[in-house]
Amino acid sequence: MQFKAILVEKTDAGQSASLKELSVDSLMEGDVLVRVSHSTVNYKDGLALTGKAPVVRRFPMIPGIDFSGVVESSSHADWRPGDAVVLNGWGMGETHFGGYAGYARVKGDWLVPLPRNFTPAQAMAIGTAGYTAVLSVIALEKHGVAPADGPVVVTGAAGGVGSVAIALLAKRGWHVIASTGRPQEKAYLEGLGAAEVIDRKELSEKGRPLGKERWIAGVDGVGSHTLANVLAMTKYRGAVAACGLAQGMDLPASVAPFILRGVALLGVDSVMASKSRRIEAWERLARDLDTSKLAAMTSTIRLEETIGAGEAILAGKLRGRTVVRIA
Questions:
Q1: 198-252 pLDDT per residue, tens
Q2: CA 20 to 30 Å from 75, out of 184, 189, 278, 321?
Q3: Residue 289, in any domain of the structure
C-alpha cells in the first residue's frame, strides 16, 4: 500500500522536510498497523519540521508526535482491526515514525482507545497539548491546591497547552489569569474562561528572587525567566506545574520561593506517562472539556500545509490547536 507522508531528511546541506509517497513496507517495526486519519501540530512538531532544535534523533523521520486512526491489522492482544485509537508521545516523530502519514506501525502498548465522547478529529484538536494540559491540572489538584485558595496563572495562554488549560481550569471554578504576548487574543482567551489577561512582559524579563504573592497555582509551558517569575509570585504553599520550554530550558530562579514559601514545582511529562495515567487523562478530558470551547480554539489544515504550520507555531502565529487532516 502506498500513502503520503511528510519526511524529514538530513544531508550535508542540512535538514529538510518534504511531502513524499511511501509504502507500508517502509514503516518501522511494531505489532499494530494503524490507518491514520488525523494528527496535529505541537511546538515540538514545529521544531522537528524546521530543524531549529535537535528533536529528531534518527533520519529519515516522519514527524508528528500524535495521531488518531483505526487499526488496520494487529498481532497485539488488546487490538483488533476496526478499533479506534489515539497515540501521544513515546518518541513518535523523534525516534519512531510519527503521525504525519497515511499509516503508522507502532507498539500496541503505546495506544489508548479513542474516548467515545470524541471524534478522531476532536481527539487531535486536544492532542499532546491538551493531554499535557490535563496532566498539569491533575498534578496541581493532587498536590492539594484548589480554586478557593486563590487564582491560577497560565502562561503561553494562546497556545495549545494554555488554551486547553484555561478551559479545563475555568470549568473547575478557578479564577484564571492568562499570560500572553498577543493582546489581540484577549476576547478569545476570555471566551475560553480567562478572568484576567496580562501581558507576558510582566513575567518574561529578569525578575526578583521573590515577588508579591499573586496566585496559588500555575501552569507554565514557557520556562526560563517566565517560570522563574511565576514561582517568585506564587503564594505560600502553592504549586506550579511546568510542562514546556517555549522561552528556554534554563531556570534563572533562586531557592527563595521553595524554602520561604514552601512552593512546589511539579514536573509534567507527557511523553513516557504510563498507560493508566493516559487513560485517566483522557477520561478527565472527556468529562471536563467543553467541546464547544474546543471547537473555538481549533483550526484544520491538510497534510500538505503541515510544513508551513511548523514554521508558524514557532513564530507564535498559531492560536489554540491545529488539526492535520491526513486523508
A1: 999 999 999 999 999 999 999 999 999 999 999 999 999 999 999 999 999 999 9
A2: 278
A3: no
- Angle at the Cα of 138 from the Cα atoms of 111 and 177, rounded to 5 degrees: 125
pTM of the model: 0.91
Q: For residue 268, which of 233, 238, 223, 230 has the smallest C-alpha distance?
A: 223
In the block, residue with C-alpha cell 498536590:
143
C-alpha span between 150 and 139 (Å, rounded): 17
Which CATH number is 205's domain given?
3.40.50.720
The DSSP bridge pattern shows strands 298-302 and 321-325 to be: parallel
Measured CA to CA, the distance from residue 108 to residue 26 in angstroms comes to 19
SS3 (DSSP) at 310: helix
C-alpha cell at 230: 511565576
Do 77 and 135 fall into the same domain? no
Cell matching residue 81: 482491526
Which residues touch 78 (CB under 8 Å, ≥6 apart)?
Answer: 108, 111
Q: Please check whether residues 187 and 153 belong to one and the same domain.
A: yes
